[in-house]
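If you are new to this repository, start here. Below is one unmodified record pulled from the training split, so you can see the exact layout before writing a loader.
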Amino acid sequence: MSGGMAATPQGFPNRQVPGFDDPNAIVAAAEATGARISQVRAGIGHVIFGQNQVVDQTLITLLSGGHVLLVGVPGLGKSRLVETLGVVLGLATKRIQFTPDLMPADIVGSEVLDETEGRRSFRFVPGPVFCQLLMADEINRASPRTQSALLQAMQEQRIAVGGVEHPLPTPFHVLATQNPIEQEGTYPLPEAQLDRFLLEITVSYPDQDAERTMLLATTGAAEARPAPAMTAEELMAAQALVRRLPVGEKVMDAILSLVRGCRPETAGDEIVRRHVAWGPGPRAAQALMLASRARALLDGRLAPSVDDIAALARPVLRHRMALSFSARADGVMLTDVIDRLVGHLG
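And here is the target side for that same chain:
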C-alpha cells in the first residue's frame, strides 16, 4: 500500500508504520474500527446496564490511549465494568485492592536477594502493574505515598526499581475506581496523579428501567458473561487511527479558549479570576484533543466538532481545577464554572 500504512489481516492500520495520510485508507480503517467497536459495545451491554454514558466515556479514554478515574459510591458496578472491559478488549488484566497498609512495592514490584551456587545477586520480581489493564480498586483508600507509585507508570509506561528501568506491556491503561472523598477512610489523590487521568467519569445510579433489567439479569440461575470482541493489537491500531483524524481550526481554537479560560492568570471571565484557585495545565488541552477525536470515531465521524469539546469539558477539566475558599463559601460549584465557559464557545 504505497504512501500509506499497511493493513493488518483484520483491516486495521499497522500502528508501527508512519505516514497514514491517505484519506481513503483513513476512511477504510475508520469503518473497520467502527464495526469492531460496535461489537465491543454490544459485549459490554450484555453485562453492564443503564450506564451508556459511562461506557462510552471509558471507551473514549481507551481509544485515546489514556487512563480513567471512575468516581461513585460503592455498588454501582465500577469494578464490574473494568473486569468486563478486560475480557471484551482481550487485555491482560490485573487488580490491586488499595488499602491503607498497601505499600509502593506491592504495586511496582521489588528486588529480592537470590543465592545460587554460593553467589548472591538481586533479582527483580515484577508487581501487578506489569499488565495491559490495571484495575486500581478504591484507589483513594491508600495513602498518597502509595498512590504516587503509579505516577511514572501512567506517564511513561515504565517503572524504575533499584536504578533499573523496566518497560510495561503495551497497551497500558489504569482504570481506577474511587469512592467519594466525603466517605470515611479515604485520602485525596495527589494533584500530579489526578492530572494523569485523561477523564474523571462520574458513575451515578441507574434509572428505574435499567435497574429492573439488572435485577432480573443478575439474580437468575445463569449470569451473562462477556466475550472477547477485540484484541490488544486492534486496540493499539485504533489508538493510532485516532491520532490521525484531522482537527479543524475551529475545534483547536475552542480547546485553547476553554483550557486557557479556566486559568485565573489568563481568564477573561471575572468568575474564574475570583473563584478558581488553580486551573488546568497543558495536559488538559492534550486530553481534549485526543478525546474529541476518539468521540468522533466512536460516533462514526472522521473529524471532531465543537460539540465534542462541550460534551467532554466536565470529565476532562473537573479533576484538573480547584476552587478557592471564597467560592466554596459562596456556594459556587466547579461544574457551574466549567458549564459557564462552555457556554461561551458558541
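Two things worth knowing about this chain: Residues 1-19 have pLDDT under 50 and may be disordered. The two ends are 41 Å apart (CA to CA).
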